[in-house]
Specification:
Length: 283
């Protein structure tokens, strides 16, 4: 599981390792937070070289993970777990070191709480969406969509699809069959130019519902057909997306309204957009 969290309004990328039950954090992001460097990557390269010369084992233990970069692409990024970060922070002079250590400890503790009680994770996510201005109706669908997506990716992993690149291709197959657009094309359609914009956070209720239908159908087909490996799961993805696409076209035919909409929630929060739509329907 990958996520972006904030420390003093600055983003820190992290990834959860299920096997090891620990977070890994992007070292460059941590350096940016602590130093304010405009080129944290260069800062890290110099620090890494110095620590190697000093025989610091922490640098040797750090490894790379693919994470989403500022341009929206997956790039190999040096990461460290909490223990490694705490040791690295000792080598970075910064007045923010102590506050960051406390924040790091809290982040780890909250994740342990969520493992023991998954309802806490859903509650915290719900609170975040509420603060961003989403309605309860939308939040219910968004959280359900996350659960459907997690079930699908878990199924892919069981069936031999491991790489994030393959996940992206299969997701694009489902989206293309469902909406006639890949996720990248859908983001352009909704004018979401920022690579950090999450497409699903800008979907309407019906867009979320048909996204769920495509992914849930894909999961079910993969199970029933016992799809193994990438090619078989690609066929299942197309079939699952086609089911959702056919349902979408049927609804559009009956309602006279397109499901895919250019609407996004960049300027106006979802709950206000929903209220305005209700007002327009009553007039």
């Amino acid at each position: 599981m990958s996520a972006i969290i904030l420390f003093e309004e600055k983003q820190v990328r992290r990834a959860w390792n299920k096997d090891e039950e620990k977070w890994y954090f992007a070292i460059a992001d941590v350096i940016a937070v602590l130093t304010g460097s405009v080129d944290p990557g260069a800062y890290w390269r110099k620090l890494k070289e110095r620590l190697k010369k000093e025989g610091n084992q922490t640098v040797t233990d750090c490894h790379g993970l693919k994470m989403t970069a500022a341009d929206g692409k997956q790039r190999l990024t040096d990461v460290a777990d909490t223990e490694q970060l705490l040791r690295l922070i000792q080598s970075i002079p910064s007045p923010k070191a102590e506050p960051f250590k406390l924040w790091l400890a809290r982040v780890g503790y909250e994740r342990l709480e969520e493992i023991e009680n998954p309802e806490l994770a859903a509650r915290r996510m719900r609170e975040i969406y509420q603060q961003k201005g989403y309605s309860e109706e939308w939040i219910e669908k968004r959280l359900r969509g996350i659960a459907v997506r997690d079930e699908l990716t878990d199924e892919w992993k069981k069936r031999g699809v491991k790489e994030q690149r393959d996940f992206a291709i299969l997701t694009a197959e489902i989206s293309k069959a469902t909406f006639g657009m890949t996720p990248a094309e859908y983001k352009d359609f909704k004018a979401l130019a920022n690579p950090k914009d999450n497409l699903r956070d800008h979907m309407t209720d019906l867009e979320l519902i048909f996204t769920m239908l495509g992914e849930a159908s894909t999961t079910e087909i993969a199970k029933k057909q016992d799809a193994r490996g990438f090619p078989a799961n690609q066929q299942a993805a197309r079939a699952g997306g086609t089911i959702a696409g056919n349902a979408r076209r049927e609804l559009e035919s009956k309602s006279g309204t397109k499901i895919s909409t250019k609407a996004n929630f960049k300027e106006l929060p979802e709950v206000k957009t929903r209220t305005l739509r209700k007002g327009m329907r009553r007039e």
